[in-house]
């Protein structure tokens, strides 16, 4: 099997040096496998369901989905309830693969495996009473070298949910929905704070963290060099009393939301996939999540050819729903997110790099 051709494989920019079998388990006519994949100086673990007849992963097929559910207890330890009678692939997955189980449940199979409890499982298991998330029913873990690796999670299926980004693009008058989404974001943050507690840090430490991230981004996108001084000056002017940080979503944007007939749901609590797990579980300020949503609204405006007035009106509605937040600190996090987007667009969609660059210029010039 050529992993580099599989949709879920996340290191396509460099060649694979070697693939070794970490573990294998017969799964009907297929083979469930954990593969140790070396590329450059990195070694990653990937979970696959191998079909010898096609020489491809088959999890995103009807037979593969059914086989995974039927044999999950052979892969590792079951926590909670991971049972079901029928499974089919959701389709359209990328970094992970989702399966629909008995119409009422969703199984997310994690492809790239990292040591520790996946934040999706950890956070959602603790706030299952929150009305704006899909509660966890059970998960499967595998122990390797004394550390748990989360293989899959079963949670409530959000039926008839509409992708937030698609909905915002299709809805001219998105203001009321944005306000409700702000309220939902606040509710989730409040539940996370109660479940995991908060910490107090200085504003200077927040500024240092933002500057450090800029240090990492600058070599990756020359377009940022002209804005470096103004960005650092903005971070430097952050002031005020100590602030609270807590566990957050970590990668929040409109595409991480679903809207049903009566409410918003926040989904995919894994954090930024490009960051290692030990960083994704660190507490941060709520403004990071809010900034991600602000920038997502900016992309809706840009890709839908809506003007800045529409974008600002929707952002204002979202923030009014969320409630009080330090606007200067939020602006700093928005700049940080936009700087990350500059790197992404420069390397993947250079025709869109001006979208985050304009956002940075607008904020730093007041």
Task: Describe the protein's architecture and organization.
With 366 residues, this protein is α+β, with helices and mostly antiparallel strands. It folds into two domains: 3-156, no CATH class; 162-364, Aminoglycoside 3'-phosphotransferase, Chain: A, domain 2. It contains eleven helices and 16 strands. The strands form four sheets. A six-stranded antiparallel beta sheet has the order 5-10-11-8-7-6. Strands 1, 2, 3, 4 and 9 form a five-stranded antiparallel beta sheet that branches. Strand 2 and strand 3 (42-51) form a beta hairpin. The longest helix has 22 residues, at 175-196. The mean pLDDT is 96.
List keywords for this structure.
366 residues, alpha+beta, Aminoglycoside 3'-phosphotransferase, Chain: A, domain 2, six-stranded antiparallel sheet, five-stranded antiparallel sheet, 24% strand, Phosphotransferase, Aminoglycoside_PTrfase, Kinase-like_dom_sf
What does the secondary structure layout of this molecule look like, with pairings?
Elements: E1 18-27, E2 30-39, E3 42-51, E4 56-57, H1 62-75, E5 77-80, E6 87-89, E7 96-101, E8 105-110, E9 112-113, H2 119-126, E10 136-144, E11 147-156, E12 162-163, H3 164-170, H4 175-196, E13 198-201, H5 203-217, H6 228-236, E14 243-246, E15 257-259, E16 264-266, H7 277-280, H8 287-303, H9 308-322, H10 327-348, H11 354-364
Antiparallel strand pairs: 1-2, 2-3, 3-4, 3-9, 5-10, 6-7, 7-8, 8-11, 10-11, 12-15, 13-14, 15-16
Helix pairs in contact: 4-9, 5-6, 5-10, 8-9, 8-10, 10-11
């Amino acid at each position: 099997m050529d992993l580099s051709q599989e949709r879920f494989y996340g290191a396509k920019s460099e060649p694979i040096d070697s693939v070794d079998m970490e573990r294998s388990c017969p799964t009907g006519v297929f083979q469930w496998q954990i593969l140790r994949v070396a590329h450059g100086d990195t070694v990653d673990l990937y979970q696959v369901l191998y079909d010898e007849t096609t020489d491809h992963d088959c999890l995103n097929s009807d037979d593969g989905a059914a086989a995974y559910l039927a044999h999950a207890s052979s892969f590792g330890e079951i926590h909670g309830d991971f049972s079901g009678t029928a499974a089919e692939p959701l389709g359209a997955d990328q970094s992970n693969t989702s399966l629909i189980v008995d119409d009422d449940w969703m199984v997310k199979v994690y492809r790239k495996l990292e040591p520790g409890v996946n934040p999706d499982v950890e956070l959602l298991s603790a706030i299952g009473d929150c009305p704006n998330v899909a509660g966890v029913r059970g998960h499967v873990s595998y122990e390797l070298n004394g550390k748990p690796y989360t293989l899959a999670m079963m949670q409530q299926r959000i039926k008839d949910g509409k992708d937030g980004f698609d909905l915002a693009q299709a809805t001219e008058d998105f203001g009321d929905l944005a306000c409700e989404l702000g309220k939902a974001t606040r509710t989730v943050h409040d539940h996370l704070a109660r479940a995991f507690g908060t910490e107090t840090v200085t504003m200077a430490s927040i500024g240092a963290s933002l500057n450090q991230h800029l240090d990492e981004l600058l070599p990756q996108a020359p377009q940022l060099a002209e804005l470096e001084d103004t960005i650092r000056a903005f971070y430097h002017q952050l002031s005020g009393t100590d602030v609270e940080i807590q566990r957050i979503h970590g990668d929040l944007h409109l595409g991480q939301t679903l809207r049903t007939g009566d409410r918003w749901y926040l989904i995919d609590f894994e954090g930024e996939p490009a960051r290692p797990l030990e960083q994704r579980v660190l507490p941060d300020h709520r403004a990071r999540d809010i900034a991600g949503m602000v920038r997502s609204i900016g992309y809706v405006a840009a890709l839908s050819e809506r003007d800045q007035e529409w974008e600002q009106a929707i952002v204002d509605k979202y923030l009014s729903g969320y409630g009080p937040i330090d606007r200067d600190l939020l602006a700093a996090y928005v700049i940080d997110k936009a700087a990350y987007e500059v790197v992404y667009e420069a390397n993947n969609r250079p025709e869109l790099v001006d979208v985050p660059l304009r956002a940075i210029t607008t904020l730093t010039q007041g």
